[in-house]
Design brief:
This protein is mainly α. Helices cover 79% and strands 0% of the residues. It is built from one helix and no strands. The longest helix is centred in the middle third of the chain and has 42 residues, at 11-52.
Length: 53
Amino acid sequence: MEPKKTKPKAKGETAREDRLKAALKANMARRKAQAKARMAAQNGDAAARKDKG
């Protein structure tokens, strides 16, 4: 079975893919930072309650 031959991508299509890739990377970094902040806040709240109790 021969591998499928694909057409070379148009310049605009490649640029679009690059923009989408960059946007996805930024979005994932932002989500990761948000999750980290939430975990830190939850851990801080749990520690504060533990100290009071």
